Amino acid sequence: MGSLQNLSETWIYLSASPLFHLTLTLVAFQAAAWLFEKGGRNPLLNPVMVAVVIIVIVLSATGTSYASYFEGAQFVHFLLGPATVALAVPLYRQWHVVKRSGVAIAISLLCGSLTAIATSVAMAWLLGATPEIMATIAPKSVTAPVAMAIAEEIGGLPSVTAVLVILTGIIGAMFGTMVLNACRVRPWTARGLAMGTASHGIGTARALQVNETAGAFSGLAMGLNALATAILLPILWGLVFR
Amino acid sequence: MLTYLTLIFACQLLGELLVGALALPIPGPVVGMVLMFVFLLIRGHVPEDLGRVTAGLLGTMSLLFVPAGTGVMLHFHLLGEAALPLGAGLLVSTLATIAVTGVLMAWLGAERSDG
Lengths: 242, 115
Fold this sequence. Notes:
The complex is a heterodimer of chains A (242) and B (115).
Chain A: H1 2-15, H2 18-38, H3 47-61, H4 66-78, H5 80-86, H6 88-93, H7 95-100, H8 102-126, H9 131-137, H10 144-154, H11 158-182, H12 188-210, H13 212-241
Chain B: H1 2-22, H2 28-43, H3 48-59, H4 66-70, H5 76-81, H6 83-108, H7 110-113
Helix pairs in contact in B: 1-2
């Protein structure tokens, strides 16, 4: 009886500690990764998406706020920065290929970047979105910190943009292979560039799992598209909406 | 190992400092990636230990997006209200961007990268 009470007191203490939510994040992701493998790597079982669903269910069931979850999960989140720096390594290993196709990369990336902006805003507009929602979705293909800054600048909601960015990454990771196969895009350089331009780091993480050349080009595209969108989008927005 | 982990953090830190000081429109870690790339160009090869550290970081990169993704729970209400324009916008735009970029790059890069 006494030990049971100790257990429940310890549980109350631990469930509020950062360690619990850090462990929850790792366990949920590994369960999701296991499911992804079991399901024959079916893109619909994208591990990021499944892990998020598991965690949201656990947090809702236990009445935990996102803020207290993030106190533990921030240690995982923090590693995004170092992982981005680490992308220099695959890029360096593929540099001889990148150098040879500089013009092709520049043109493809620029057109991809404009497509990402124009189609997201056009679809939202066609389906009756408010200008605020259009400004929130416009930078969705760019890595989260840049997308949030751009959304703020053009009058969107930065915290919602962060969520749309993640969803865009998941959509790209889920359906990217399918689209590229349907369009008969075979070179790993082109497949990687497409993933990184459309779906930033999550697309890059997916591309790295498949092929190192694709991963390097995806990481490169992620960085370049962040730069291109940060410069282009505020200018375009000013031309069209003012 | 520790040396290169330190180097990675140092590149990111320096990147953040440069972004702040020069008011660059890109995030610190992306500038850090450029700095690390310059280091590799000067070094002329990827040191074995650096390769091991980065393989560890990049091998589990998907995991690192989970905490930010869980932030979706903060916006269920708004996402529900604008579900159609947002959902259709994200889906159509992401797939179109992948198709346009991939097809252009495969076409423009073809003659050169085959060799």
